[in-house]
């Protein structure tokens, strides 16, 4: 059992920090709003993005086929991995064949999902994450708490202390400029030593067999162009039909993610460098199962911008780690139940169903509707916690008996007024743990209606 | 894997047509400059190609190693002599020519042929991109219509200096790549 509520409770115990986290993410959300208002056709672009992705899912096998053929024509070696384990094995085999002991990586949620780092490190390979946020959490031995800003949960003083310990920066120094510069020097060394570079993929172009990788730091390019071997790991759903569709997605991605009109680097890799090797590993790892679920396949349209996290009132106040999965927040909560319904059965409930996630999604995934649908599946399959199950059963029993319901209402309203607080806020009243119940009205709507409108 | 996907996928839906979106009436170089500067670039508008050498010297008076595949630039490093990209680690300034500039976001398309070594525009401390004003388009749709992304083995849109905001969302210019980007519109 995943226990989002418990982990969130631990997170919000520090009220000041919760507020800071909330504000930081809301600032990103606000930047996104400003950036989207800059282009009048924003809503039309979202619709186009959604339609292209619908088409991709409906012809995914054909596009993957086309992608592989074109990539091979370009001299790229294409590998297929059914699951995380096969993916890790393939990457290790490529490295082992060349006796490679040091690699650099740029940000890839897929390799996080597959736990590639742990796998390779266990085999004795040095793995260095080169995105600054990822390097920070790698040094801290933590998981990312956000897919675009992996270290958003950490304060600069904590990063300063971490760098002092690991990179020997000055004690007590916490200036972001200084810390970034120290990381730059440290990572330069690693880039120059690396024998292979692993990246994620933002888009795979079926028509040309190439992959597109977007970064702001330039870390993916530093790694890929210096190393003799480049490996791009791509989920099957990252395919787009043609290069012209990048016009849509590059306009949507940066604006949705951080409020930039485009990421600083949008790199298109098609052929290995002279004398180099280029590999693309295409990974399923549960995606085809999700494709087969009519109500939930839309989640595969995701372009991993993180906008749904930045806007989510629950995510902002509970932190990414409370979700217990690589992709946290609203999108993670509709991806995870498909992976392990029982384990992640609490995540679709980590939402107010306010729908803000669906409103900001650049490819119009109906996230909040899917959260609601997962709740029903979870209830039907009997994965609700006992307390919630019992109270739901009692409520539905009561709702099915109008006379009894009216009587209970009458008694309830009276009791709420008369009973002492200590009795009302008992241990069964989970709602009242952090909140006051509303003041009980004197009469129900039905009573009022009968008095005032019936005649 | 493909067999399983075939069974799982939904009914075919058509690909949408991408309409020609409206282009603002403002002059493209001005829009380009505005949007580039928002992402941290420096944009210089210059009328003549003759003063390029002086301009580079003025901009980077302390630069020791200057590299460029362009013949009109005075360089201190001959890129033709370099076989291993690691030898570019101490380049101070690299100067390349861009093929297309995008006014809505300041992105510039360059490919392998423009940089000679793929790592050059990333590993250099400072990057200068020359761009003809008549190569400007307004949006990314127009940019992709004009590029053939697989013409060479590698191509990239560069929209500014390397940057990060991974520490408390504070913007820092000069993450792993160049510390500055200067665009000279000629």
Secondary structure layout:
The complex is a heterodimer of chains A (455) and B (186).
Chain A: H1 4-12, H2 15-37, H3 42-58, H4 60-73, E1 77-81, H5 84-97, E2 102-105, H6 109-114, H7 116-122, E3 126-129, H8 132-139, H9 156-167, H10 176-193, E4 196-199, E5 203-205, E6 210-215, H11 219-226, E7 229-235, E8 239-240, H12 246-258, E9 265-269, E10 277-283, H13 287-291, H14 307-311, H15 313-318, H16 329-339, H17 356-360, H18 367-380, H19 386-399, H20 402-418, H21 421-424, H22 445-452
Parallel strand pairs in A: 1-10, 2-3, 2-4, 4-7, 5-8, 7-10
Antiparallel strand pairs in A: 5-6, 6-9
Helix pairs in contact in A: 2-12, 3-12, 9-10, 16-18
Chain B: H1 2-8, H2 28-38, E1 42-45, H3 52-59, E2 66-67, E3 93-97, E4 100-102, E5 108-111, H4 112-115, H5 120-123, E6 126-131, E7 136-137, H6 140-146, E8 154-158, E9 163-164, E10 172-173, E11 180-185
Parallel strand pairs in B: 1-11, 2-3, 3-6, 4-7, 6-11
Antiparallel strand pairs in B: 4-5, 5-8, 9-10
Fold and architecture overview:
The complex is a heterodimer of chains A (455) and B (186). Chain A is an alpha/beta fold. Chain A has helices at residues 4-12, 15-37, 42-58, 60-73, 84-97, 109-114, 116-122, 132-139, 156-167, 176-193, 219-226, 246-258, 287-291, 307-311, 313-318, 329-339, 356-360, 367-380, 386-399, 402-418, 421-424, 445-452; strands at residues 77-81, 102-105, 126-129, 196-199, 203-205, 210-215, 229-235, 239-240, 265-269, 277-283. The longest helix of chain A has 23 residues, at 15-37. Chain B is α/β, with parallel strands linked by helices. Chain B is 22% helix and 22% strand. In chain B, the strands form three sheets. In chain B, strands 1-11-6-3-2 form a five-stranded parallel sheet. Chain B has a four-stranded mixed sheet with strand order 7-4-5-8. In chain B, strands 9-10 form a two-stranded antiparallel ribbon. In chain B, a hairpin with a 7-residue loop joins strand 9 (163-164) and strand 10. The N and C termini of chain B lie far apart (51 Å). The interface between A and B is large, with 93 and 71 residues. Strand 9 of chain A pairs antiparallel with strand 8 of chain B.
């Amino acid at each position: 059992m995943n226990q989002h509520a418990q982990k969130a409770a631990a997170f919000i115990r520090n009220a000041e920090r919760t507020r800071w986290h909330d504000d930081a993410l809301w600032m990103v959300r606000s930047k996104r709003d400003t950036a989207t208002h800059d282009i009048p056709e924003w809503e039309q672009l979202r619709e186009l993005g959604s339609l292209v992705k619908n088409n991709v899912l409906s012809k995914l096998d054909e596009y993957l086929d086309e992608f592989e053929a074109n990539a091979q024509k370009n001299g790229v070696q294409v590998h297929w991995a059914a699951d995380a384990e096969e993916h890790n094995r393939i990457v290790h085999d490529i490295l082992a064949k060349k006796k490679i002991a040091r690699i650099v990586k740029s940000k890839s949620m897929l390799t996080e999902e597959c736990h590639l780092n742990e796998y390779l490190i266990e085999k004795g390979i040095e793995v260095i994450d080169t995105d600054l946020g990822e390097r920070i959490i790698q040094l801290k031995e933590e998981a990312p708490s956000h897919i675009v800003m992996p270290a958003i949960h950490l304060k600069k003083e904590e990063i300063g202390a971490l760098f002092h310990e690991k990179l020997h920066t000055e004690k007590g120094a916490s200036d972001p400029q200084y810390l970034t510069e120290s990381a730059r020097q440290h990572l330069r060394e690693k880039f120059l030593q690396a024998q292979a570079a692993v990246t994620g993929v933002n888009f795979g172009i079926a028509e040309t067999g190439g992959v597109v990788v977007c970064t702001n730091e330039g870390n993916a390019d530093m790694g890929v162009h210096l190393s003799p071997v480049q490996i791009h790991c791509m989920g099957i759903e990252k395919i787009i039909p043609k290069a012209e569709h990048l016009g849509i997605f590059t306009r949507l991605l940066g604006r949705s993610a951080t409020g930039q009109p485009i990421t600083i680097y949008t790199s298109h890799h098609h052929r290995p460098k002279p004398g180099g090797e280029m590999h693309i590993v295409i990974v399923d790892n549960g995606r085809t199962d999700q494709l087969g679920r009519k109500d939930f396949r839309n989640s595969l349209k995701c372009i991993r911008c993180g906008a749904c996290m930045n806007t989510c009132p629950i995510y902002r106040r509970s932190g990414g780690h409370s979700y217990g999965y690589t992709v946290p927040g609203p999108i993670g909560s509709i991806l995870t139940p498909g992976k392990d319904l029982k384990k992640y059965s609490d995540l679709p409930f980590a939402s107010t169903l306010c729908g803000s996630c669906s409103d900001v999604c650049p490819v119009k995934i109906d996230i909040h509707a899917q959260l609601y649908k997962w709740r029903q599946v979870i209830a039907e399959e009997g994965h609700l916690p006992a307390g919630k199950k019992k109270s739901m059963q009692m409520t539905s029993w009561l709702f099915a008996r109008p006379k009894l319901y009216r009587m209970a209402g009458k008694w309830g309203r009276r009791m709420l007024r008369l009973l002492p607080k200590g009795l009302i806020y008992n241990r069964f009243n989970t709602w009242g743990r952090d909140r006051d119940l509303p003041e009980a009205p004197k009469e129900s709507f039905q009573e009022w209606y009968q008095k005032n409108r019936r005649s | 894997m493909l067999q399983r996907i075939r069974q799982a996928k939904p009914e075919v839906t058509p690909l949408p047509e991408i309409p020609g979106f409206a282009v603002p009436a403002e002059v493209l170089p001005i829009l380009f400059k505005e949007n580039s500067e928002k992402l941290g670039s420096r944009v210089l508008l210059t009328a003549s190609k003759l003063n390029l050498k002086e301009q580079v010297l003025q901009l980077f008076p302390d630069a020791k190693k200057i590299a460029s595949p362009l013949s009109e630039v005075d360089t201190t490093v001959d890129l033709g002599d370099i076989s291993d990209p690691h030898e570019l680690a101490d380049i101070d300034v690299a100067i390349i020519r861009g093929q297309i500039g995008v006014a809505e976001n300041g992105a510039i398309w360059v490919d392998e042929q423009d940089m000679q070594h793929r790592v050059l525009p990333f590993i250099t401390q400072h990057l200068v991109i020359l761009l003809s004003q008549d190569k400007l388009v307004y949006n990314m749709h127009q940019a992709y219509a004009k590029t053939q992304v697989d013409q060479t083995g590698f191509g990239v849109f560069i929209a500014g200096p390397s940057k990060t905001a991974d520490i408390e969302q504070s913007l820092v210019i000069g993450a792993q790549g160049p510390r500055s980007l200067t665009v000279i519109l000629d």
